[in-house]
Design a protein that fits this description.
The chain is of the alpha+beta class. It is built from 21 helices and 18 strands. The strands form three sheets. Strands 2-3-1-9-8-10 form a six-stranded antiparallel β-sheet. Strands 4-5-6-7-11-12 form a six-stranded antiparallel β-sheet, with helices on one face. A hairpin with a 2-residue loop joins strand 8 and strand 9. Helix 6 (about 265-275) runs parallel beside helix 8 and helix 11 packs across helix 14. It is globular. The model is unreliable at about 180-185 (pLDDT under 50). Its EC number is 6.3.5.4.
């Protein structure tokens, strides 16, 4: 987990932007608390903040080559770097950093190196001779990367706030992206085939599996990977899945610092733990404890497996009482989460994951890497039994979701959507899915828009790198290549994973049912209402009574009243908190380029509470 930000321009850059680079570096410091390096060229500048994970002493970035004419910065990990370096001619690497291989690959192959990488990454390459900037992002969008064209320049950064540190950056809210009212189940509109919005007009993400080329003021985007298509002759998918997961875990344990793992007690994290524990004897596990989770048996299963494998196990309380003992439910908390999430939304999942990462850093301050089960569901049918009787019903549900997403992409008003036939979007849907099914497209977009997004931000805020072995692109390609006639057999209730897990786990673990992170909506809604109502008095003073309020004070006061005790309390609480978050986001976007701007700080009462084993 590192952070980078900078600019390329057709004009010669003067020294006046040095203060902007320092400001961007300060904003990115939680992502990279170990080091800061600034590199400047006549038409290019970059600040890099490092989280030292591999080659702690010598692996400083950016890397430079060809007499300084090539500058390379990488946020992330290149897991197959040794294999790639062995293929290249010439002198070997100067460091043991996995990221240095990108410099050598670019020198020999240009942008053709990207499909060779196995890793999670956001990459910036400056080629001074050709006055060319390359911005690239990993296949599934694990690592974030923003960019914005401004006049004769392009701005880029690992976080939105680092881009907006430049005074000329766009900062007008994208209300189309903010139109959705969140709920406990999913706080964003599912984008389907449409790009995910950053929330600011004129600032874009580098899309997953894409590299953006800027050369003399012209920007072009290029796709370098798409998931494999179904293969009628695919042999032994279960065995191949098990082998690939073993190898993915082996690669992703690469670290010169301690590695932790989040274990829920469900199938995904249990299989990950059993696979990793054989290779990492000092692995330590962390589990969320919340009343609605207790009823599922997951916590007991996690403890049982850790005891069986001899893995140190830390359980962290995240019920409302425990959370209120550790953090203040005040305006500063909301401001902090809008700041770290780079988007005007708050969901209780962000808070509990944030506290889980914070507990990891409390238990082992030297820890910088954690393995997550994220991504196991989306390509293996993980949610297919949550409310669905069979595979056809699950597939039909996802086709409806994609249909609704495509209508949203068309900008169709809500009043007409129930009246539109699904056939009217079949052609657009076919372009969105290609050879794949709607549930696979929806799963991939959910990952980029929500799951990987919030995992990255909550980990980065605590100086932790989150790794996702289930999203090794080889595993994704394998799952996408399963022929459709075998989908019901292998994907309903994640059967392919359950069979593969038999290699390492007893049946009492492999046949555990799928449950959500927070199985009941009530605790989530209660936390939302608690934050919205608890922070409102201070919010009203700072944002509504300031003379530059985005929302009408009377309307916000009425929402607050409804959230404190009406039959509409849950929905009013979510809407109130969203409006408050948008106000905070707007203030951040407007003010972050001011040299006097200070990032909001989370008020902490204590460290996250542990539960006795």
């Amino acid at each position: 987990m590192c952070g980078l930000a900078g600019r390329a321009s057709t004009d010669v850059l003067g020294p006046e932007s040095l203060s902007v680079l320092h400001a961007a570096g300060r904003f990115l410091a939680p992502r990279g608390p170990d080091d800061q390096v600034i590199v400047r060229r006549p038409h290019f500048e970059i600040v890099f903040r490092r989280l030292a994970v591999n080659d702690l002493t010598a692996g400083r970035q950016p890397f430079t080559g060809d007499g300084g004419r090539i500058v390379v910065a990488v946020n992330g990990e290149i897991y197959n770097h040794r294999e790639l370096m062995e293929r290249l001619p010439g002198p070997g690497p100067r460091t043991r950093s996995d990221c240095e291989v990108v410099l050598h690959l670019y020198r020999h192959l240009g942008t053709g190196f990207l499909p060779l990488l196995n890793g999670i990454f956001a990459i910036a390459v400056w080629d001074e001779r050709n006055r060319r900037l390359i911005l690239a992002r990993d296949r599934l969008g694990v690592k974030p990367l923003y960019h914005a064209s401004v006049g004769r320049s392009i701005l880029f950064g690992s976080e939105l706030k680092a881009v907006l540190a430049y005074p000329g950056a766009p900062r007008t809210l994208d209300w189309q992206a903010l139109r959705h009212v969140p709920n406990a189940a999913f706080p964003f509109p599912r984008p389907g085939a449409a790009p995910v919005s950053t929330g600011v007009h004129g600032v874009s993400f580098v899309e997953p599996a894409t590299w953006v080329e800027w050369c003399d003021g012209v920007t072009r985007a290029h796709r370098y990977w798409r998931p494999a298509e179904p293969e009628d002759t695919l042999a032994d998918p279960v065995g191949r899945y098990a082998d690939l997961l073993d190898d993915s875990v082996r690669l992703e344990l690469m670290s010169d610092t301690p590695v932790g793992i989040f274990v829920s007690g469900g199938l995904d994290s249990s299989l990950l733990l059993a696979t990793a524990a054989r290779r990492a004897p000092d692995l330590e596990a962390y589990t969320l404890v919340e009343p609605s989770i207790r009823g599922t048996g997951d916590i007991e299963a996690a403890a049982d497996l850790c005891r069986q494998l001899g893995v140190a196990h830390h359980m962290v309380r995240v019920d409302q009482a425990a959370l209120e003992e550790t953090v203040a439910f005040d305006l500063a908390m909301l401001e902090h989460f809008v700041w770290i999430m780079d988007f005007p939304v708050f969901d209780p999942e962000f808070l509990v994951k944030h506290e889980l990462h914070r507990r990891l850093k409390t238990v082992r301050p030297e820890s910088k890497v954690v393995l997550l089960g994220q991504g196991a569901d989306e390509f293996a049918g993980g949610y297919s039994t949550l409310g669905f009787q069979d595979w056809p019903q699950w597939c039909a549900h996802n086709r409806r979701l994609l249909h609704e997403s495509l209508l949203g992409e068309l900008g169709m008003p809500d009043v007409y959507r129930p009246l539109v036939s699904e056939r009217s979007t079949e052609e657009r849907g076919a372009r969105a899915t290609g050879a794949h099914e709607a549930w696979q497209v929806i799963g991939a977009s959910d990952l980029a828009a929500y799951n990987l997004w919030h995992e990255d931000r909550t980990a980065a805020a605590n100086g932790v790198e989150a790794r996702v072995p289930y999203l090794d692109h080889r595993i994704v390609d394998l799952l996408c290549s399963v022929p459709r006639e075998r989908h019901a057999e292998l994907f309903f209730d994640k059967e392919i994973m359950r069979r593969a897990a038999g290699r390492h786990l007893a049946e009492r673990f492999t046949r555990r049912p799928k449950v959500p992170l927070l199985p009941e909506a009530a605790p989530a809604a209660a936390l939302v209402r608690r934050l919205a109502t608890g922070a409102f008095a201070e919010f009203r003073e700072r944002y509504l009574d300031s003379g530059r309020s985005l929302f009408a004070p009377a309307a916000m006061a009425e929402l607050h009243r409804l959230a404190t005790g009406s039959p509409m309390a849950d929905r009013a609480g979510y809407l109130l908190l969203r409006c408050m978050a948008i106000s905070v986001f707007d203030r951040i976007c407007d003010g972050v380029s001011d040299p006097a701007f200070e990032p909001p700080v989370l008020h902490r009462h204590a460290e996250p509470l542990a539960v006795a084993a």
